[in-house]
Amino acid sequence: MAANGSPENGSDSLxxxxxxxxxxxxxxxxxxxxxxxxxxxxxxxxxxxxxxPREAGLTYSAWSMELTTRLMQAASWLVMQKAVRDGEMxxxxxxxxxxxxxxxxxxxxxxxxxxxxxxxxxxxxxxxxEALFEQICRLDQALYNAPMPGQAKNxxxxxxxxLQRAAETGAFDPLMVWHRAK
Length: 182
Known about the structure:
CATH class: Mainly Alpha
Order of helices and strands: HHHHHHHH
Low-confidence stretches: 1-10
CATH topology: Helicase, Ruva Protein, domain 3
Strand content: under 5%
Oligomer: single chain
CATH superfamily: Protein of unknown function DUF1465
Helix content: 55-70%
Mean pLDDT: 80
Structural class: mainly alpha
Distance between the termini: 36 Å
Largest sheet: none
């Protein structure tokens, strides 16, 4: 099997994702968010944290650790996908359980913490980071839980793929797709 993720190894969906503009956009935005968050936490965020009331300070400390962990997971996943795309890592290795990203804990709810003493900028970074992490989880699920060659077909995944192909070609007819599925 080719290390570059060529189509013969069943990684068409990965190739189309990592080779496209969507991946480049997610990668750039994700890495920029990691950098922006680190700059905030090491600079203005550190100063803000010193002035917070006790309860807000505890929330800030706990959330900043979770935020950092999730962003590092997202960044690692993005770098790994880039390595697969560039032929530096095999798709099979990237699909190992230890490299997968999923949400085990509930997301941090920045809206629930508004007006409770946390800095607005911190809550904005939390919300954006949670959205990125959720997107990475969905992408991981879509890329690595799709059936590999020789595995049983997934009817729902097939229908979603048909809808995606139709939307990409501009020939989307939901009734045609629905009738074929019957």
